[in-house]
Write a structure and sequence with these properties.
This protein is an alpha/beta fold. It folds into two domains: 3-204 and 419-435, Aldehyde Dehydrogenase, Chain A, domain 1 (3-Layer(aba) Sandwich); 210-402, Aldehyde Dehydrogenase, Chain A, domain 2 (3-Layer(aba) Sandwich). The chain contains 14 helices and 15 strands. The strands form three sheets. The chain has a seven-stranded parallel β-sheet with strand order 10-11-12-9-8-13-14, with helices on both faces. A five-stranded parallel β-sheet has the order 5-4-3-6-7, sandwiched between helices. A three-stranded antiparallel β-sheet has the order 1-2-15, with no helix packed on it. Helix 14 (371-380) links the parallel strand 13 (361-367) and strand 14. Helix 3 packs across helix 4 (56-74). The longest helix is centred in the N-terminal third of the chain and has 19 residues, at 56-74.
């Protein structure tokens, strides 16, 4: 089936649900969530086997947390027909579907990205066509087929979601050109292609979050949250902590604390150099053979033996930014440690690292109990999300913070994105406004300003 035929089938499916109300739509959103939740384990195993990225245990968590959090967020939202009628302002807001949404999805999240895209799109009564990463075709196709079966059981058209089973660059470009809206989740080049398609698009930028540890924060808690932030799904999360800036005066104590929690630290320059050589190719790109691998596998490639159950590796660097390629996004369970003397210096280094090594606009984190420091950091750092005293991967919007659940995290104009925030259902509908005339009286009768014409 060619892309145009898929577009036609999507439009036919939309015709069939034209009269669906909010309750009808929400049943389909829930059905999709439930079927993926119920198949979380086999889908996680399949993803790791096919893509060789991440770990099964963490992907199971993704496959259960995503449908749960998305549904809890979406279930009470109005998204069909009249969604608001404000008597005081005289404004009536009406939601209209966008139509067919083309979703370009990554190998790192072959199940939750198609699911999350569909749940947000279906909430607005849209259809979805997924173009998966070639490396994840089997898992993404399985995911889409499960959702199609769930739709069928609800008596809805299966073609509300479809997938390109033999994805190519040409097909992804054709999909972006023919659909009504593009959701592009992946590399910067993909976002640029989406914006160049002539179709309205939401894209994301690359991650590489810096995190600042303030001198008043509990080191044990910081260590625990760092392990979660860096080690989740073997570090392939775009919002995972890559650079941890910590006070020089407590460096020895912090290293001891990290080791106590199972982190293996390499601080000798000659040892760090060996990791630098294997993690990045001569052209400066990440070594694809080590992306998303277990920590002990990466260590072995660098010539070291570490405990098999090690969750993350820490590498000590004397610099940040372009002076050390390790400060680029690694996409593995590795965090770079760098000391600072003053808090303001840490903030400057965090900004420098993003400007020179990538990740600007995406996400940053801070561990601090100092409100002045927190606000200073939040004002200075050029990102769409600052995670305070929580792992940076929580930028996706779990119930532990107020961010909206998302599988696409926009980076604003900093990251060449149209949106500085999490993409959710409200971005996938057109909201029109019907406005009543207000009964107001202007000062001085009909004039707003009491001035004479000659004053202009």
């Amino acid at each position: 089936m060619n892309v145009q035929e898929m577009i036609d089938r999507s439009r036919a499916a939309l015709e069939k649900i034209m009269d669906y109300n909010q309750e009808d739509v929400d049943k389909l959103v829930f059905a999709a969530a439930r079927v993926i939740y119920e198949n979380a384990k086999p889908l996680a195993k399949e993803a790791v086997e096919e893509t060789r990225l991440g770990c099964v245990e963490d992907k199971v968590g993704k496959n259960t947390d995503t449908p749960t959090e998305f549904w809890n967020y979406l279930k009470d939202k109005r998204s069909v027909g009249i969604i608001e009628d404000d008597k005081e302002t005289g404004v009536i807001k009406i939601a209209h579907p966008v139509g067919v949404i083309g979703c370009i999805t990554p190998a790192t999240n072959p199940t939750v990205t198609p699911l999350g895209n569909f749940m947000h799109a279906m909430k607005g009564k849209n259809a979805v066509i997924v173009c998966p990463a070639p490396r994840a075709v089997k898992t993404s196709t399985h995911t889409v087929n499960l959702i199609r079966e769930a739709l069928k059981e609800e008596g809805a058209p299966e073609d509300l979601i479809q997938i390109i089973e033999e994805p190519t660059l040409a097909k992804s470009q054709e999909l972006m050109a023919l659909c009504d809206l593009v959701l592009a989740t992946g590399a910067s080049s993909l976002t640029k292609a989406a914006y160049s398609s002539g179709t309205p698009a939401y894209g994301v930028g690359p991650g590489n979050p810096p995190v600042v540890l303030d001198d008043d924060y509990d080191l044990d808690t910081a260590a625990e949250q760092t392990i979660t932030a860096v080690g989740s799904d073997n570090g392939i999360l775009c919002d995972g902590d890559n650079l941890l800036l910590h006070p020089e005066k407590t460096a020895d104590k912090f290293y001891e604390t990290l080791k106590k929690h199972g982190v293996v630290i390499f601080d000798k320059p000659e040892d760090v150099a060996k990791f630098r050589e294997v993690l990045f190719l001569p052209n400066g790109k990440s070594n694809p053979d080590l992306v998303g691998c277990d920590a002990d596998v990466i260590a072995k490639a660098a010539g070291f033996d570490i405990p098999e159950k090690t969750k993350i590796i820490a590498l000590v660097s004397p610099v940040v930014g372009k002076e050390d390629i390790l400060c680029h996004e690694i996409m593995g369970p590795i965090v770079i440690l760098k000391t600072y003397d003053k808090f303001e210096e840490a903030v400057s280094m965090a900004i420098q690292n993003m400007e020179e090594s990538g990740g600007i606009g995406h996400t940053a984190g801070i561990f601090s109990n100092n409100e002045e420091h927190i606000k200073y950091y939040a004002e200075k750092i050029p990102v769409a999300r600052v995670l305070i005293n929580q792992p940076t991967p929580d930028a996706w919007g779990p119930s532990t913070n107020a961010l909206s659940p998302a599988v696409s995290e926009g980076c604003g104009s900093w990251g060449n994105n149209i949106l500085a925030g999490n993409v959710d259902y409200i971005h996938l509908i057109n909201v029109s406004q019907a406005v009543r005339k207000l009964d107001v009286e202007l000062p001085d009768g009909a004039k707003l300003f009491n001035v004479k014409q000659k004053d202009f």
